[in-house]
Amino acid sequence: MDSGQERLTHAQLRTPRAAAVAGILFSVLLFVTFALVRISLPGDPFEPGTWLDNSLLYVTLAMHLVPFAGVAFLWFMGVLRDRLGEREDRFFSTVFLGCGFLLLAMLFSAAAVVGAIIIAFQASHEALEHSAIFHFGRGLAYGMMNIYLLKTASAFMITTSTIALYTHLTPRWLAIGGYVIAVVLLIDYLGWSLMLFPFWILLVSLSILWEMQAASGRAG
């Protein structure tokens, strides 16, 4: 085998592991982002905007973490499709990709709206605070994050768990746990319940890494 083929084989072996690590990175970044938002922004969409008068450091940091989390999530979806290989079903693959892209769209859009509110407040806080524009933006971000992102994450987990259950992509208990968490997110919103989504992604990524290391040990 020449050096070019060796480099190609080495890249093929490293790509899934890098993507699985990206899944862990996504989980950590999203968990931190949600935590910073929760402790900084009131859960009430009708709140008059007093949080803007406080330090915006945590909110600003959370908005800057979102793009990195989004890129890591794309890598995570890539490793799942890579591990499926020829077992991939076109129907579930389409739903899987659609839910993933919608989730990122909602996450990025909500972050952009919150960022726009912060910039507008810093430019003219007297005109923005208690204005209709502020309440529109606040309500838009609230709906994207707490309704559409929440439901899309549930759909993503249901689809991924179904694929994992029939293809043995993850342990059976992890796929069933995905169904349970998805149902919780669908029927109720508990303030911090959205944290369950990155936690489940973290478990899936760790499971993939564990399986890959075990396979490497058997091959060695």
Gist of the model:
The chain is mostly helical and 220 residues long.
What would you note in describing this structure?
There is one protein chain. The protein is mainly alpha-helical. It has one domain (3-41, 49-219). The chain is built from 7 helices and no strands. α1 runs antiparallel to α2 (57-84), α1 packs antiparallel against α7 (196-219) and α6 (172-187) packs antiparallel against α7 (196-219). The radius of gyration is 20 Å and the shape is elongated. The chain starts with a helix and ends with a helix. Residues 8-13 have low confidence and may be disordered.
- Domain module count: 1
Shape: elongated
User: Structural class of the secondary structure composition?
Assistant: mainly alpha
Put simply, the count of helices is 7
Q: Largest sheet, if any?
A: none
Low-pLDDT regions: 8-13
Helix content: over 70%
Mean pLDDT: 81
Q: Roughly what fraction of the amino acids lie in strands?
A: under 5%
Radius of gyration: 20 Å
Q: Could you tell me how far the N terminus lies from the C terminus, measured between alpha carbons in angstroms?
A: 19 Å
Number of strands: 0
Please provide the ordered H/E string of secondary-structure elements: HHHHHHH
SSE topology sketch:
Blueprint: H1 3-40, H2 57-84, H3 90-123, H4 125-128, H5 132-167, H6 172-187, H7 196-219
Helix pairs in contact: 1-2, 1-7, 2-3, 3-5, 5-6, 6-7
Notable features of this structure?
82% helix, 0% strand, mainly alpha
